[in-house]
């Protein structure tokens, strides 16, 4: 497999076959601004062919027993093991940072259940929806695609994957590899221009959109999906707070808070985007965080010891620089940071903004880059008000040696996940979803498959079948 597979030529995968296009595009290596390989831009005919193939494949794939689907996906997963180095290399080139492929459990369970009711027995059946489009962002090309298509396929749907045009390479290759294990049309991938996402969302033969990306795009998708009553799972942006209580070991906690903010160059949906430190330890925490941030080596992801790679693309780099300019213009103090040494790459030093007002742009907006505000707090009730005063509600982290206090604070936060004494770490095995404008629905965990199904209920008032199939 590894010997016949090329990691320098890329195709859309339609009905089990690679297909190029008359129109091509390409990404850039954000560390060097080097132009990367050509990728096809799907035409409207490609989109139609893909949806037709997915619909056709659904008829048989949806009838394959769950255990067989799981076995095929497990084989696919095992075949990826020896290729992770090459796939990681693609991720390094296209987003600037090596990424381990996030392994997904192929042993999820979704069993029909017979339930005893008051006057009847009823059977809950989980029926796959049909064709699913999985639309993903650029920050975790492999993980984001896999955490959508694996449960989608397991549940019996066929899936069309659409990577971000900023980072299409690893995803195109991942789906190409899958063709050895899955029937044609079951798992397909299309790279495209700005018209592709809307074309999928508006397509009448697509039953569900599973999406991760910005709040703005998520709202457009929700609006368009309503027209055909598509199911949607929307995993959107965040403005997650790290709350530091006065009882922590400052030296131990500061580097971890810094990592929570700057990991993957701050380009993580659940990255810390606001830091709230109790006033009694504010000065010492800020000083320790500054030291920790300074120790993070900024540079090309292919160089040993690099922790902070470049920002992934020029547009995002522009946004980060603009936020930095805004902090300077308003006279906010910063610890470390700013635009990296002049090179071709989109480098930005990890920057902490010291005590900006609550209405500063760097506090309100999702930075999605290595710049984060830090602010003192005194009163717990007021702190909770400030943290909840956001239209986003993805996650938060709380640092305290008093677990009751941390739990009391956590329970009052209007967010989907709260991590106590760690920065946020998404696990494929644990449910994950946002409150407020951070999204609709839940990914990952034991119930992930349900979101790819319609529930059907069979009511039995007399005899019932001996076995549930
Ligand atoms: P984005 O919304 O710009 O793009 C995401 C995807 O949507 C891309 O594939 C893009 O081509 C596609 N798209 C754009 N417009 C579309 C439309 N009208 N219809 C359909 N598809 C369309 O997001 P991005 O810049 O790639 O990613 C960064 C954002 O993603 C951040 O806000 C981050 O917080 C969020 N994110 C959220 C999660 C999560 O699980 N909550 C995970 C990763 C990233």
Automatic annotation (TrEMBL):
UniProt cross-references to CDD domains, sorted A to Z: ALDH_AldA-AAD23400 (cd07106)
Q: Which family does it belong to?
A: Belongs to the aldehyde dehydrogenase family.
The name on file for this protein is aldehyde dehydrogenase (NAD(+))
Biological source species: Lepidopterella palustris CBS 459.81
Q: Which reaction does it catalyse?
A: an aldehyde + NAD(+) + H2O = a carboxylate + NADH + 2 H(+)
Gene Ontology molecular-function annotations: aldehyde dehydrogenase (NAD+) activity
Q: Mind telling me which InterPro entries this protein's record contains?
A: Ald_DH/histidinol_DH (IPR016161), Ald_DH_C (IPR016163), Ald_DH_CS_CYS (IPR016160), Ald_DH_CS_GLU (IPR029510), Ald_DH_N (IPR016162), Aldehyde_DH_dom (IPR015590), LUC3-like (IPR044086)
The EC number(s) given in the record are 1.2.1.3
Residue ranges of the Aldehyde dehydrogenase domain?
A: 28-456
Arranged from A to Z, the UniProt key words for this protein are: Oxidoreductase
Q: Where is the organism placed in the taxonomic lineage, from the top?
A: Eukaryota, Fungi, Dikarya, Ascomycota, Pezizomycotina
Active-site residues from the entry: 235
